């Protein structure tokens, strides 16, 4: 796990940009504290920061060269089938100088070119330069677990693991108003957009090839709608799931450094932990809890799992004061506006975990592929239960008069009733966007100085729902849209800020494809979400996990914004001079949002205020 950056100058006049390569590499030092180096040719430069995981010796340093320097590579990620591929190449006469997966990829590319990506099981962002052909190959993994951003104009192509690395080069910085339009609705910016006009994210399963001075982007992998398996009984599917997930976890435990797991107390991380514990003598597990906010604290469930699995468990209990003490460092690591508030506890958990291990397994991805969210259960009711729809319509007038927010049991229930009643009345594509967003398009337009409309990107993102058949299509949308842009972005950004590698066994691409082929009723019914996952491990996990409501990994944001963070907000978000000087937002809309935040019915205003706060801090830093 590392950080990469690089430049290709199409024109001789742009070769002066090479002087920024060292700074671009240094800006992602947190991604790789163990080694750094750059490599340059006449018009090509590559930079690398290394976090040593496999073959921690000097032989694993990058940029790596093979075949007398013909191929030069920078690589971020892990390939979990590299040992099998290595043996295959040895049998063909290849001699290796290291025990890294990096060198295996390079020799595969030398023999097979772009198609070598189809052989890799893992997650990655990589760049390979061929000095003989003077060609550059850049690629991102299938699921979008690892990030890769790029800037391309008529004179150069730049790429990097994080935006702040690209901003070290001399490029024209402008806020992308279309990206801001979507950010205000979602609290994140979906690929290929970024908040800086001209910088794009490479999509999952995409690659860039530069030959003869021409750059071409293509798709080497796309998760497609699968034919539903009718030949597999539920019991057979449970058995196969256990086998596939066991293999995925086992592969992801290969490391030459200490390894542990995140353990939240939910089903997903508990399943991963229970499997991992069978393959190591003493597994270390880590949880984070909120001592001042029991409503958000789930550490008691994590401790039950740790006890049953016999792990070496550490719980990090944090007060509000503790959490707030991390705020400045946390904001500093946000390379583009990203306002999923759960990123803060993920950052703290990663920072604390890194004091003990270098690699951690997580349960990310299970909710998206197995149907674990409230919105999935709501969608099923919209499809199948007309009586429930009539009930929400009857309750709606009462709910409209009640407080609505995520910060309490009853206020959250009222919020959910209203969202359900609105969502059931709209078509699948619009319904999906409505459930994915925290604010509607009208809010974004009112907030922006330069209002935008939904465009072709919206159509592209909603394509899995264009010919809606059943909830499998919704899960496909989550896997291709929400997962890489929100959940995986959060985990990569916050873990790598602490030089911690996080591996996600649920997102082995072969496992994901198989799960998408299962019938809907194997994943969700009127009584249970993630049905097959829960049933497969019911005899292994503590019974208490099955007797508790699902909670997200959230923090007490509403209370914080109204108390401990208020002074900071008054200096950034609720500061008319700064808002008008920035030129992005309408002050009247910001002022109305502040009134909403302090009303008896805040709804999702805290999430919207948080998004503005994160944007303002980012804007102040880079603009």
From TrEMBL:
<dbReference type="InterPro" id="IPR033738">
    <property type="entry name" value="AsnB_N"/>
</dbReference>
<dbReference type="InterPro" id="IPR029055">
    <property type="entry name" value="Ntn_hydrolases_N"/>
</dbReference>
<dbReference type="Pfam" id="PF00733">
    <property type="entry name" value="Asn_synthase"/>
</dbReference>
<feature type="active site" description="For GATase activity">
    <location>
        <position position="2"/>
    </location>
</feature>
<keyword id="KW-0061">Asparagine biosynthesis</keyword>
<keyword id="KW-0028">Amino-acid biosynthesis</keyword>
<dbReference type="InterPro" id="IPR014729">
    <property type="entry name" value="Rossmann-like_a/b/a_fold"/>
</dbReference>
<comment type="pathway">
    <text>Amino-acid biosynthesis; L-asparagine biosynthesis; L-asparagine from L-aspartate (L-Gln route): step 1/1.</text>
</comment>
<comment type="similarity">
    <text>Belongs to the asparagine synthetase family.</text>
</comment>
<dbReference type="InterPro" id="IPR006426">
    <property type="entry name" value="Asn_synth_AEB"/>
</dbReference>
<dbReference type="Pfam" id="PF13537">
    <property type="entry name" value="GATase_7"/>
</dbReference>
<dbReference type="InterPro" id="IPR001962">
    <property type="entry name" value="Asn_synthase"/>
</dbReference>
<keyword id="KW-0547">Nucleotide-binding</keyword>
<dbReference type="GO" id="GO:0005829">
    <property type="term" value="C:cytosol"/>
</dbReference>
<dbReference type="GO" id="GO:0004066">
    <property type="term" value="F:asparagine synthase (glutamine-hydrolyzing) activity"/>
</dbReference>
<keyword id="KW-0315">Glutamine amidotransferase</keyword>
<feature type="domain" description="Glutamine amidotransferase type-2">
    <location>
        <begin position="2"/>
        <end position="213"/>
    </location>
</feature>
<feature type="binding site">
    <location>
        <begin position="362"/>
        <end position="363"/>
    </location>
    <ligand>
        <name>ATP</name>
    </ligand>
</feature>
<dbReference type="GO" id="GO:0005524">
    <property type="term" value="F:ATP binding"/>
</dbReference>
<dbReference type="InterPro" id="IPR017932">
    <property type="entry name" value="GATase_2_dom"/>
</dbReference>
<dbReference type="GO" id="GO:0006529">
    <property type="term" value="P:asparagine biosynthetic process"/>
</dbReference>
<feature type="site" description="Important for beta-aspartyl-AMP intermediate formation">
    <location>
        <position position="364"/>
    </location>
</feature>
<feature type="binding site">
    <location>
        <position position="101"/>
    </location>
    <ligand>
        <name>L-glutamine</name>
    </ligand>
</feature>
<keyword id="KW-0067">ATP-binding</keyword>
<dbReference type="InterPro" id="IPR051786">
    <property type="entry name" value="ASN_synthetase/amidase"/>
</dbReference>
<feature type="binding site">
    <location>
        <position position="288"/>
    </location>
    <ligand>
        <name>ATP</name>
    </ligand>
</feature>
<protein>
    <recommendedName>
        <fullName>asparagine synthase (glutamine-hydrolyzing)</fullName>
        <ecNumber>6.3.5.4</ecNumber>
    </recommendedName>
</protein>
């Amino acid at each position: 796990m590392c950080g990469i950056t690089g430049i290709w100058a199409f024109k001789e006049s742009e070769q002066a940009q090479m002087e920024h390569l060292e700074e671009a590499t240094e800006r992602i030092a947190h991604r790789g504290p163990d080694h750094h180096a750059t490599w340059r040719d006449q018009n090509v430069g590559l930079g690398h920061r290394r976090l040593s995981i496999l073959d921690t010796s000097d032989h694993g340093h990058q940029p790596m060269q093979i075949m007398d320097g013909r191929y030069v590579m920078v690589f971020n990620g892990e390939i979990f089938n590299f040992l099998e591929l290595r043996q295959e190449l040895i049998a063909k006469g290849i001699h290796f100088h290291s025990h890294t997966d990096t060198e295996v990829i390079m020799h595969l590319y030398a023999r097979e070119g772009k198609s070598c990506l189809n052989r890799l099981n893992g997650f990655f962002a990589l760049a390979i330069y061929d000095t003989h052909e003077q060609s550059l190959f850049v690629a991102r993994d299938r699921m979008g677990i690892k990030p890769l951003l790029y800037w391309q104009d008529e004179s150069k192509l730049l790429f990097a693991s994080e935006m702040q690395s690209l901003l070290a080069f001399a490029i024209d910085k402008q806020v992308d108003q279309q990206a801001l339009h979507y950010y205000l609705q979602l609290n994140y910016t979906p690929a290929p957009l970024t908040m800086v006009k001209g910088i794009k994210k490479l999509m999952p399963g995409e690659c860039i090839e530069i030959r003869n001075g021409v750059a071409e982007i293509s798709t080497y992998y796309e998760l497609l709608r699968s034919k539903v398996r009718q030949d597999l009984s539920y019991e057979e599917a449970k058995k196969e799931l256990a086998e596939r997930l066991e293999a995925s976890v086992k592969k992801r435990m290969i490391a030459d450094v200490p390894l542990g797991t995140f353990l939240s107390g939910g089903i997903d991380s508990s399943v991963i932990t229970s499997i991992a514990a069978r393959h190591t003598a003493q597994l270390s597990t880590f949880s984070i809890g909120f001592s001042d906010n029991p409503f958000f604290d789930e550490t008691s469930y994590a401790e039950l799992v740790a006890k049953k699995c016999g792990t070496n468990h550490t719980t990090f209990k944090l007060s509000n004061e503790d959490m707030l003490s991390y705020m400045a460092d946390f904001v500093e690591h946000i390379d583009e506006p990203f306002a999923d508030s759960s990123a803060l506890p993920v950052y703290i958990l990663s920072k604390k975990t890194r004091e003990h291990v270098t690699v951690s397994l997580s349960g990310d991805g299970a909710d998206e592929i197995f149907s674990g969210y409230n919105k999935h259960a709501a969608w099923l009711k919209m499809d199948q239960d007309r009586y429930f729809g009539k009930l929400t319509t009857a309750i709606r007038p009462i709910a409209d008069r009640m407080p609505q927010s995520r910060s309490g049991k009853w206020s959250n229930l009222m919020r959910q009733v209203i969202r359900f009643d609105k969502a059931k009345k709209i078509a699948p594509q619009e319904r999906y966007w409505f459930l994915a967003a925290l604010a509607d398009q009208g809010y974004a337009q009112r907030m922006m100085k330069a209002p935008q409309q939904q465009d072709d990107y919206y159509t592209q993102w909603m394509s899995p729902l264009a010919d809606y058949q059943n909830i499998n299509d919704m899960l496909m949308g989550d896997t291709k849209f929400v997962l890489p842009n929100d959940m995986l972005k959060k985990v990569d950004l916050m873990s790598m800020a602490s030089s911690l590698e996080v591996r996600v066994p649920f997102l082995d691409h072969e496992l994901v494809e198989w799960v998408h082929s299962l019938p809907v009723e194997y994943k969700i019914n009127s009584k249970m979400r993630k049905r097959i996952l829960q049933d497969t491990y019911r005899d292994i996990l503590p019974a208490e996990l099955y007797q508790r409501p699902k909670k997200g990994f959230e923090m007490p944001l509403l209370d914080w914004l109204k108390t401990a963070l208020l002074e900071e907000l008054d200096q950034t978000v609720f500061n008319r001079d700064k808002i008008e000087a920035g030129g992005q937002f309408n002050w009247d809309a910001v002022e109305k949002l502040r009134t909403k935040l302090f009303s008896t019915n805040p709804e999702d205003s805290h999430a919207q205020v948080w998004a503005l706060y994160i944007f303002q801090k980012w804007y102040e830093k880079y603009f």
